[in-house]
């Protein structure tokens, strides 16, 4: 049985040069120059537009993505990736930097942060358990940001340019 998890293809519809990956990789550029299709054999993955887990982030589940629009990609640039483990989920979100202001605890998905908590700017968070995705807009739309267990004192620490969070989803198997 292969431990194969995710396959990147330079061309659409799983054509051209390919690279198979089964663990996180901070710089995929030496393996392929562009990425127009992806096949996820197993696991949940975040793929990133730039090296070292930066730039646009895309959450991918098991399945076939024959062109980059299928994973909501803005271009054919994929430069790093990481697999996401599953388990229990608990996170505290804060309206202000450095864990200040209004606070809320999450243990489940939140399709609209504003409807549930009456604020939609998250300046800091503390992830106790599990992996989560912050979405820029309600109902899991817009830019995506992976938050892993740990403390984030400011929104730029999870890769965002603004504190705007419209919805939050747990990564579960």
TrEMBL record:
Gene3D superfamilies per UniProt: Crystallins (2.60.20.10)
GO BP term, example: lens development in camera-type eye
InterPro entries membership: Beta/Gamma-Crystallin (IPR050252), Beta/gamma_crystallin (IPR001064), G_crystallin-like (IPR011024)
Keywords, alphabetical: Eye lens protein, Repeat
Residues forming coiled coils: none
Entry annotated with the keyword Repeat: yes
Domain Beta/gamma crystallin 'Greek key', chain residue ranges per copy: 4-42, 43-85, 89-129, 130-172
Stored SMART domains: XTALbg
MF annotations from Gene Ontology: structural constituent of eye lens
Chain ranges passing through the membrane: none
Function: Crystallins are the dominant structural components of the vertebrate eye lens.
Family listed: Belongs to the beta/gamma-crystallin family.
Protein name: Gamma-crystallin M2-like
Organism: Salarias fasciatus
Gene encoding the protein: LOC115383718
């Amino acid at each position: 049985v292969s431990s194969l998890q995710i396959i990147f293809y330079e061309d659409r519809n799983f054509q051209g040069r390919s690279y198979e990956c089964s663990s996180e990789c901070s710089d995929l550029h030496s393996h392929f120059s562009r990425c127009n299709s992806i096949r996820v054999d197993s696991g949940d993955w975040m793929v990133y537009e730039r090296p070292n887990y930066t730039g646009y982030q895309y959450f991918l589940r098991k399945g076939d993505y024959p062109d980059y629009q299928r994973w909501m990609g803005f271009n054919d640039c994929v430069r790093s990736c990481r697999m996401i483990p599953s388990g229990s989920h608990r996170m505290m979100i804060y309206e202000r930097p450095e864990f200040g202001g209004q606070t809320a605890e999450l243990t489940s998905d939140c399709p609209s942060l504003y409807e549930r908590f009456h604020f939609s700017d998250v300046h800091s968070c503390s992830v106790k358990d599990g992996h989560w995705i912050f979405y820029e807009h309600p109902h899991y739309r817009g830019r995506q940001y992976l938050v892993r267990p740990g403390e984030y004192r400011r929104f730029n620490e999870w890769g965002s340019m603004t504190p705007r969070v419209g919805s939050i989803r747990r990564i579960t198997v």
